[in-house]
Amino acid sequence: MINQGYKRMVLEDKISGLPDDILVTILSLLTLKEAVATSIISRRWQYLWRSLYNLNFRYEEILHRNDSYTEYNWYRKIYGADYMHTYIQVVNQVLRLHKGLKLHEFGIHYPLDASAGCYIDLWVAFAIAFRVSKLELNFLPCPVSYWAFDTKNYSIPLTLFDRSKGIEPYLVQLDRVFSIRTPPLNVDNRFECLKELFLKSVELTFA
């Protein structure tokens, strides 16, 4: 009689035998944390997550919450400089490893402000270069009542929406400063593919 362990192994082998694009589509239905975790299944799965169609960076998946933290202390950490630095590092590292050709969704979910604008500009440019369909910048994902703060909202440059101005300087900086590669620009590498745009605690500027 075939045991359950053998059945699971056979099923895994059948799934692993699927083409990369199908496996990446399946992984893109998971959270980023879950998708990255599949890299330990086998050598076949090790790098598949790097081609995800959806990149949603949710703070609760990226940052560690100590069991001893009260809810107040947890959100206090979230608004602190150390956790913010860690979050930015993680986003940059994932983008550095990304090998996909197209993004369906790209989301930043962290209470960032204008002080992180130099990074956010580059992340938005990255999403544009990969012809993102859904872009979400949620800079107020936490209950504000837990931590008092006085910051200036991030302003997204409207020049990013303007084909005539282009995003080449941002992409050059991504490449030279952060070693983050993007597809070659062409007429489609703007916001023509964008279907959904969600902005929270974001301002618009022509600068």
From TrEMBL:
SUPFAM superfamilies: F-box domain. Signal peptide: none annotated. It comes from the Eukaryota. Residues 12-62 form the F-box domain. InterPro entries: F-box-like_dom_sf, F-box_AtFBL13-like, F-box_dom. Pfam families: F-box. PROSITE patterns: FBOX. Gene3D superfamilies: 1.20.1280.50. This is F-box domain-containing protein. It comes from Gossypium arboreum.
